[in-house]
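Per your request, structure below.
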């Protein structure tokens, strides 16, 4: 085989490698890095960034790379196989091998195997690995090669792209470019992968994950329920208002006329203090700030938008009948993302979810059921179709007001009531249950929450004591 043939085959393999690297580099290159290089004055980066921002330019870029790969591969197969097979056949013919082994067919097969090896390894795998390892650098370095190919073969590339789009329309396939963007679920997967690889800290990953779920949560799931609202009645004397402030220290309070179903606005603690200094005796309409009313089904991003529009840090949540279901503050929204930020009480109480040494969880009744599932080890999906909180779950399963010592089972977990407040659960202990092989076909198969026989017996004993 002549020196020219060796150089020609090498050039074809190198060209194939360059086009393969260019294709993978433009797909893997990150816009943020390329935009940063473009702002720094890199003219090639400006061109590559323009390609990344325009899907049509990106399609043409990839089409040029694929055209180069195709032509290089065809040239390598047609020219390289012929030259290499002839050289192998000549070498076999001059050696002491059987005549059938020196045939052109055997030589052609050997040539194909050799070229395939070099084509796959040097022309495909190695350049792909390099491009994926340093996509931005590879895209910058190979951009002139692709631009030259686009200029030389523009009619062919445009024609191939047009035929491809025509075929897609004939198959009724959409070329919608939205598939190039990430859904919230895909972004959560990226965050988890980055955390596992050590590229993102645990706390930062938690914040990003909660932020991505922010728009899926509703006001009903996060609100302070009506039974926990502490408000000030319109026209009430300042002494009564001060008692409310002492019992439940906050910066803002809802103001109601008659009852909590008729909230007329909010009052700031500084307004109450100013009234006291001015020796005025009652809360009047002049002290009230307007407040938005939102339905229970509103997502948190809509709640935040309403607070911005009304320039307030509180919103009243309405039930389906127009009454007051609860309220939300800007602090409640932030806590859904970054955790507890209440400086006045956080140091004096346990967190809403506390892990005991035996692996059980101690949770307050207002914790959402799905948050309990996320706190388990291993983490699991936990939800109920009708209720959102632990207190609501226990009430739904007991079908009566809870008492200390009550226990129910749900999705392989035992919920023991540790404290009650009014007719709801104030604190609950969550204990993972060991799977029972004898009841797996009955209870686990149906997947329904239930109270165990021991729990029912305990409930019956408490009922007998009350009757006595």
């Amino acid at each position: 085989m002549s020196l020219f043939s060796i150089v020609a085959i090498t050039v074809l393999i190198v060209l194939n490698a360059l086009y393969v690297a260019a294709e993978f580099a433009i797909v893997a290159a990150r816009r943020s890095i390329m935009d940063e290089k473009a702002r720094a004055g890199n003219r090639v980066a400006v061109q590559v960034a323009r390609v990344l921002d325009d899907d049509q330019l990106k399609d043409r870029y990839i089409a040029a790379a694929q055209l180069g790969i195709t032509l290089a591969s065809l040239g390598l197969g047609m020219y390289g196989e012929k030259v290499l097979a002839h050289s192998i056949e000549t070498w076999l013919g001059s050696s002491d091998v059987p005549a059938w082994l020196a045939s052109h067919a055997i030589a052609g097969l050997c040539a194909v195997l050799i070229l395939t090896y070099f084509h796959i390894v040097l022309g495909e795998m190695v350049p792909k690995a390099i491009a994926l390892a340093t996509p931005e650098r590879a895209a910058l370095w190979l951009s002139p090669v692709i631009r030259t190919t686009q200029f030389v073969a523009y009619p062919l590339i445009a024609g191939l792209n047009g035929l491809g789009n025509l075929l897609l329309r004939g198959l009724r396939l959409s070329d919608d470019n939205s598939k190039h963007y990430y859904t919230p679920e895909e972004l959560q997967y990226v965050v988890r992968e980055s955390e596992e690889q050590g590229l993102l800290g645990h706390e930062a990953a938690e914040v990003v994950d909660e932020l991505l779920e922010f728009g899926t949560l509703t006001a009903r799931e996060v609100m302070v329920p009506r039974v926990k609202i502490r408000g000030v009645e319109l026209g009430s004397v300042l002494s009564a208002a001060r008692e409310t402030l002492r019992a439940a220290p906050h910066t803002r309070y809802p103001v109601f006329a008659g009852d909590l179903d008729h909230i007329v606005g909010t009052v700031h603690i500084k307004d109450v203090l100013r009234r006291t200094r001015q020796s005025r005796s009652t809360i009047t309409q002049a002290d009230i700030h307007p407040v938005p009313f939102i339905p229970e089904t509103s997502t948190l991003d809509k709640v935040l938008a309403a607070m911005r529009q009304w320039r307030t840090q509180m919103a009243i949540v309405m039930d389906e009948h127009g009454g007051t279901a609860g309220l939300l503050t800007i602090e409640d929204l932030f806590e859904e993302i970054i955790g507890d930020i209440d400086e006045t009480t956080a140091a004096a109480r346990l967190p809403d979810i506390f892990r005991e040494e035996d692996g059980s969880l101690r949770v307050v009744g207002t914790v959402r059921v799905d948050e309990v599932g996320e706190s388990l080890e291993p983490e699991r999906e936990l939800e109920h179709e009708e209720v959102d909180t632990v207190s609501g779950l226990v009430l739904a399963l007991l079908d009566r007001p809870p008492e200390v010592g009550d226990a129910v089972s749900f999705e392989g977990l035992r919920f023991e009531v540790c404290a009650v407040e009014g007719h709801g659960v104030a604190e609950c202990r969550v204990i993972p249950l060991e799977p029972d092989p004898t009841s797996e076909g009955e209870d686990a198969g149906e997947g329904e929450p239930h109270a165990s026989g021991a729990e029912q017996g305990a409930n019956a004993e408490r009922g007998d004591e009350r009757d006595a």
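The CA atoms of residues 48 and 54 lie 10 Å apart.

Regards,
D.
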